[in-house]
Write a structure and sequence with these properties.
Elements lengths: L3 E3 L28 E3 L4 H15 L6 H7 L10 H15 L15 H10 L8
Antiparallel strand pairs: 1-2
Helix pairs in contact: 1-2, 1-3, 1-4
Amino acid sequence: MTDIVLEGGHGPTTPGAGSGDHAPGSGDQAPASGRAVGPSDEAALRRWLAEALSEACDGEVSASEILGAGCSFVALGVGSLSMVRLIDAIESGLDVEIEFEGDAWFMEDLDSLVGHLQGLTRADLPA
């Protein structure tokens, strides 16, 4: 699986950086030189995304519910405004750009989103 490189110093906590709670905005950051997040950090990325989505929903859906749901974000009751907030958190927190060229299948559920983010290559990241 291809790695995604996370640059530190932007927005919410980066998955897998440091130890302890990885809630968005909790303070841990990846080193400025970048940190590759691969399959071994999938659980950390899932937790970070679930916490970011919960925050984007103003807590109406908990991170635990998101992690354990196994269904689409829509089925969880996540609205379009929350999805826009999640995209903003991903772009600023992970220093990537989400492209919507056609189908946005990767925004369907947590598994699809994690797979999409892990599939980004260094070429997809800002210079």
